[in-house]
Automatic annotation (TrEMBL):
Gene3D superfamilies: 2.40.30.170, 2.40.420.20, 2.40.50.100, Helix hairpin bin. It comes from Hyphomicrobium album. GO terms for molecular function: efflux transmembrane transporter activity. Residues 333-399 form the YknX-like C-terminal permuted SH3-like domain. Belongs to the membrane fusion protein (MFP) (TC 8.A.1) family. This is Efflux RND transporter periplasmic adaptor subunit. Keywords: Coiled coil, Membrane, Transmembrane, Transmembrane helix. Residues 88-237 form the CzcB-like barrel-sandwich hybrid domain. The chain crosses the membrane at residues 20-43. The lineage of its organism: Bacteria, Pseudomonadati, Pseudomonadota, Alphaproteobacteria, Hyphomicrobiales.
């Protein structure tokens, strides 16, 4: 049996060494490249971090600003109010009878002493005629008593010396004397009867005058409760209500001012009235009266404003808004509401001074919504930062945006 034997490749030691060297050099090159790439990346990251840190260190944020301004010598308050007529007169019947004539109706403008209605009462005319006749009778009685008194005086003057000389009895002298005194007393009674009857006649004539109902002042008739033929009664408590007349050339406006705004309200303060149904129109007036005492339940001050109303545009009983321009008792400053910061340190604002932030504590006197009035902490002309960032600190450097841009 024959065996076939193939030749076997033999690797020499020289070839093995070369391969190891090449492999090691490749590994070294890979490691060197990796180290180079890693180092370059680290260098880039470090450089970027340094640049970012530099930018953060050199960055100056831009802030919106506003100027602190004076609140002025007056402040304006708008409050709900009610209008009333300057004068209102409810006219009742002072004479009983029937309405013979009516010359005014609701909405009519009248002047003082203008006839509104005429009442007729024939029985009153009869009473007046009777009173006049009685007065003439009393006057005649007075003249008769006067004549009898003159006769008695003459008789006593004639008999007095005769009684003294004994030519006439003393009894006759006493009769003459007492008769004279009686007639003097009767004359005094007649005089009083005449005075009483004249007074009664004046009462009846006054009742007659009450039959003519006239307007007490210039105004407008706002209510009418009688018509021709209506029966009216004159009585102090149940008299017939006939008309209501209002004087509307000046309108009284009543407004209740809260306690915190009432300081400074006084007669003469400028005011204006606005009616919701008349947008764009303003009716100027002045405060004429104040209650000088607050309502204990609402802590408000009743204030009256007189508003000229020559054309009658304003109507009594209307709801309106009263705008008061009240003088300030102490100066205040105005800043935007978003400039005020409240934190653990209280209320303060960030003021921009020479490019740096300075925090100032303030006290709010009045909140106006988008603005607030403050009493201390800053002065007029200071620059405050609006909506300051939470990371702003005392002394931080900032730059201001233009005020127009900030306002926009």
């Amino acid at each position: 049996m024959t065996e076939n034997t193939e030749p076997t490749a033999v690797t020499s030691p020289v070839h093995v060494g070369r391969r190891a060297v090449y492999f090691g050099m490749g590994v070294l090159l890979v490691l060197a490249g990796a180290l180079g790439i890693g180092g370059w990346g680290a260098y880039q990251e470090r450089n970027a971090a340094l640049q970012t840190s530099q930018r953060h260190r050199d960055f100056v944020p831009t802030v919106q600003i506003a100027e602190v301004r004076s609140a002025g010598d007056t402040f304006t308050v708008s409050l709900p109010a009610t209008t009333q007529a300057l004068t209102t007169a409810n006219i009742f019947a002072r004479a009983s009878g029937y309405i013979d004539k009516r010359t005014a109706d609701i909405g009519d403008r009248v002047i003082a002493n203008q006839l509104l209605a005429q009442i007729t009462a024939p029985e009153l005319d009869h009473q007046i005629e009777q009173a006049k006749a009685t007065l003439e009778l009393d006057r005649a009685s007075f003249r008769q008593t006067q004549a009898n008194l003159d006769l008695a005086r003459i008789t006593w003057n004639r008999d007095k010396p005769l009684v003294a000389e004994g030519w006439t009895t003393r009894q006759q002298g006493s009769i003459d004397q007492q008769n004279l005194k009686a007639l003097e007393a009767s004359l005094a009674v007649a005089q009083q009867n005449i005075a009483a009857q004249e007074a009664q006649l004046r009462v009846l004539n006054q009742q007659k005058a009450y039959q003519t109902v006239v307007a007490p002042f210039d105004g407008v008739v706002t209510q009418r409760n009688i018509d021709v033929g209506s029966l009216v009664q004159a009585d102090a408590t149940t008299g017939t209500f006939m008309f209501t007349v209002m004087q509307t050339d000046v309108i009284r406006t009543f407004v209740y001012v809260p306690q915190d705004q009432a300081v400074g309200v006084a007669p003469g303060v400028d005011a204006a009235v606005h009616i919701p149904e008349l947008p764009g129109r303003s009716f100027p007036g002045k405060v004429t009266r104040i209650a000088d005492a607050l309502q204990p339940d609402t802590r408000t001050l009743l204030t009256e404003i007189d508003v000229p109303n020559p054309d009658g545009t304003l109507q009594p009983g209307s709801y309106c808004t009263a705008e008061l321009h009240i003088p300030r008792k102490e100066p205040l400053l105005v800043v935007p509401a978003d400039a005020v910061v409240f934190d653990a340190d209280g209320l303060h604002v960030a003021v921009l001074e020479d490019g740096a932030v300075r925090f100032r504590k303030v006290t709010i006197a009045r909140d106006l919504g988008t603005q607030v009035e403050i009493s201390d902490g800053v002065k007029a002309g200071d620059t405050v930062i609006r909506s300051p960032a939470v990371n702003l600190a005392e002394g931080s450097r900032v730059q201001a945006a233009p005020i127009k841009a900030a306002a926009k």
